[in-house]
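Example record used in the benchmark description.
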Amino acid sequence: MKTATAMKDVPQEALAALGMSTLGVMGLLYVVLLIIVRACCLTKLWAWFVVPLGLPALGILAAIGLTMTLSVLLGLHRLESKITVLQSLCGVLMTTGLGWCIHLFM
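Model output (structure tokens):
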């Protein structure tokens, strides 16, 4: 999600038509989508690179918990971050794609 300073770029008529509660719900849905996509990508990467080392497979709920824990520990939840949800999704998907390419050569 963009920070409050980026909201100045949005026309005020659009904000009034949508309403701030609608924008809040949309932001929440984007964050939930990001959490689910990150967890799915983590389970794939875990299966490709960690399971061969002898550790058990990671389920989707465990992956959600792990990503949430790491984001709190590493400070990735800060609001002053300038990255949008779509940029974060693209980064996660590109990382998983690169992991898939590496996995093919193993």
